[in-house]
């Protein structure tokens, strides 16, 4: 069975189609992380990075050193920065930008628009499809109307949305996002309560989602769910 585990903040561990994946791998500086970096020693297949802020790019470079067979999926410009700054071989990258699906060893990947900021490329969300499941991780973003298109195009089963409020959507805005994305299964809140600046009550998100006729699933850091 495909599985998702929230590692706190925006870091998400996935096991889909036999691939071990981490999205936005901030581990060492993540006070909510239930694992240490050595948990990922030589067992990752794919690292997905939505943008270059430190709490999302995180430990990507060190994880690549620990996982010589792993690939990185991010925007081309962010990959170029990593290649030039940290001497990561271009063969380690899956070049991409916002668009359609890209096939990678039994799974499909796509980058989506996100409304946020970054230094070395535009910020993105990511869609991951495998084992008959489609998951949308929004990265860091504010609310934007094109989420309707993401819902229509990719038809996600699960959506992971930031709710911390100061740098991203808050619970009410994320509830509106769920209505636009129309997940078939659950909406899962991320990017909150890591630090006081993004402290919110996830029950507010649950209420916003429920009153719109959808289901929310609040995970504790380290908690897994079968997809």
TrEMBL record:
One GO MF term attached to the UniProt entry: hydrolase activity
Residue intervals of the Metallo-beta-lactamase domain: 8-191
Domain of life: Archaea
One Pfam family, short name: Lactamase_B_2
Xref: InterPro entries: Metallo-B-lactamas, RibonucZ/Hydroxyglut_hydro, UPF0173, UPF0173_UPF0282_UlaG_hydrolase
UniProt keyword annotations, A-Z: Hydrolase
Record bears the keyword Membrane: no
Record has Cell wall biogenesis/degradation as a keyword: no
PANTHER family in UniProt: UPF0173 METAL-DEPENDENT HYDROLASE MJ1163, UPF0173 METAL-DEPENDENT HYDROLASE MJ1163-RELATED
Family statement drawn from the similarity comment of this UniProt entry: Belongs to the UPF0173 family.
HAMAP family: UPF0173 (MF_00457)
The protein, known as: UPF0173 metal-dependent hydrolase KN1_26100
Species whose genome carries this gene: Stygiolobus caldivivus
């Amino acid at each position: 069975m495909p599985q998702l585990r929230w590692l706190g903040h925006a870091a998400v561990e996935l096991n889909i189609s036999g691939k071990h994946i981490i999205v936005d791998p901030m581990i060492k500086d993540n006070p909510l992380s239930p694992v240490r970096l050595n948990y990922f020693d030589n067992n990752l297949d794919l690292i997905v990075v939505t943008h270059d802020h430190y709490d999302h790019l995180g430990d990507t470079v060190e994880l690549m050193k620990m996982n010589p067979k792993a690939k990185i999926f991010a925007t081309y410009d962010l990959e170029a920065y990593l290649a030039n700054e940290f001497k990561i071989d271009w063969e380690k990258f899956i070049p991409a930008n916002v668009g359609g699906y890209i096939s990678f060893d039994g799974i499909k990947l796509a980058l989506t628009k996100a409304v946020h900021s970054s230094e070395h490329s535009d910020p993105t969300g990511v869609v991951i499809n495998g084992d008959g499941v489609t998951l949308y991780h929004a990265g860091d973003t504010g609310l934007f109307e094109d989420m309707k298109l993401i819902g229509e195009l990719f038809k996600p089963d699960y959506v992971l949305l930031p709710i911390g409020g100061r740098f991203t959507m808050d619970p009410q805005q994320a509830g509106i996002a769920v209505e636009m994305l129309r997940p078939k299964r659950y909406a899962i809140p991320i990017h909150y309560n890591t630090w006081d600046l993004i402290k919110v009550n996830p029950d507010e998100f649950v209420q916003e989602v429920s009153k719109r006729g959808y289901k929310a699933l609040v995970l504790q850091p380290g908690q897994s769910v079968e997809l």
